[in-house]
Amino acid sequence: MRDFEYVAPTSIDGAVQAFAGANGNARALAGGTDLIDQIRVGRWTPEIVIDMKRIPELNILEYSASTGLRIGAAVSLARVHNHPDVVANYPGVEIPTGFVGSVQIQNRGSIGGNIGNGAPSGDTISPLIALNATVTITGPRGQREEPLEGIFAGPGQLTLQPDEFLVEVKVPPPAPRSSSHYVRFIPRAEMDIAVAGVGVSMTVADGGRVEEVGIVLTSVAPTPVRATAAEGVVRGQQLTRDIVRQAGERAIEAASPISDVRGSAEYRIELVKVLTRRALASCAGQLGVQVD
Ligand SMILES: Cc1cc2nc3c(=O)[nH]c(=O)nc-3n(C[C@H](O)[C@H](O)[C@H](O)COP(=O)(O)OP(=O)(O)OC[C@H]3O[C@@H](n4cnc5c(N)ncnc54)[C@H](O)[C@@H]3O)c2cc1C
Q1: Scanning 9, 106, 151, 256, which has the fewest C-beta atoms within 10 Å of its C-beta?
Q2: 27 is in which domain, residue-wise?
Q3: Residues in the ligand 1 pocket, defined by CB under 6 Å
């Protein structure tokens, strides 16, 4: 493994300075479950590795009914998964943080790392996008908030500049009568990455008509991708088996999968249909809405 300098700032300002002084050749380190191996195999060759775990703001995990959920970028997946307010309000976040990798990976790996990897297979990303999450990004030119949906540029690539980093993820408070879910397919029980996955959020009116819906696909395009045509099928409708089936059929319009060792493109397309139906049915089930 190539040598690099290691720094562990204890403030956001300290991290900004470390990035600013690295001439664009630094990488943020959180749990290191991906980054260390990526440096070992030469995918990244940073001069400086900047440890984010000692920065207090990146370790915030808090929920308020009026402002929603804040997850610091260095917060471990296990902490998120076990937080009572996440369990009570955000099943779509609780579920994937409980099955990324293994217990060891969940204890070590972070939300910021799962996003920062830029992998189309990142399991926390689709449900967070479906829940309209935003990210706070900072760097030498200041701080800004952006929809999470907009920061993926391609496999392994974010729109962030090399001297910028993620501070936190914010998820809006759940609307009354809302639910969320994430479902993925892997050929093994665990320790594998998604062949395909679907994150869904849903809000229904009294009587069960769908007021708002988010449907986002994992591992079937160069980035996580919103299935807007499928959302259009469901929004404003009373959920029926036919509407759910149609949503699955239309979800594939957003998918442009590759064939690889995990599955062919054709197989992934079929998975998108099935997983979309299942995720929608699960959201409806959480709300006691019958899908007839
Ligand atoms: C055996 C194994 C199984 C796995 N299984 C899964 C799985 O099932 N599902 C899944 O989604 N992933 C899986 N992963 C991938 C990985 O564990 C997760 O993506 C994890 O969340 C990464 O978090 P980390 O804190 O370890 O990231 P790190 O390795 O520290 O960083 C990952 C990337 O994010 C960047 N980064 C970290 N923090 C920031 C920040 N604050 N701002 C900007 N960029 C940042 C780093 O520079 C790096 O490029 C697996 C990995 C292994 C080794």
Answers
A1: 256
A2: 5-51
A3: 27-35, 52, 73, 77, 100-101, 105, 108-110, 112-114, 116-117, 121-123, 165-166, 191, 193
Instruction: State the distance from the centre of ligand 1 to the C-alpha of 234, rounded, in angstroms.
Output: 33
Same domain for 132 and 95:
yes
Q: Nearest residue CA, atom 11 of ligand 1?
A: 122
At residue 83, the 3 state secondary structure works out as coil
Q: What is the pLDDT of residues 193-247, one digit of tens each?
A: 899 999 999 999 988 999 999 999 999 999 999 999 999 999 999 999 999 999 9
What percentage of the chain has pLDDT greater than the value 70?
100
Q: How much distance in Å is there from the Cα of 64 to the middle of ligand 1?
A: 27
* Domains contained in the chain, number: 3
Q: What letter does residue 93 receive in the DSSP assignment?
A: H
Residue 46 sits in the same domain as residue 83: no
Domain endpoint, select from 171, 192, 211: 171
Which residues are within 8 A (CB) of 94 and not within 5 positions of it... i.e. 6 or more apart? 80, 81, 86, 87
Q: What is the pLDDT of residue 1?
A: 77
Verify that 159 and 255 share a domain, yes or no.
no
Return the pLDDT at 192.
Answer: 82
Query: Can you tell me which atom of ligand 1 is nearest the CA of 110?
Result: 25
**Euclidean distance between CA atoms 220 and 214, whole angstroms:** 17
Q: Can you tell me the distance from the alpha carbon of 89 to that of 6, in angstroms, rounded to the nearest whole number?
A: 38
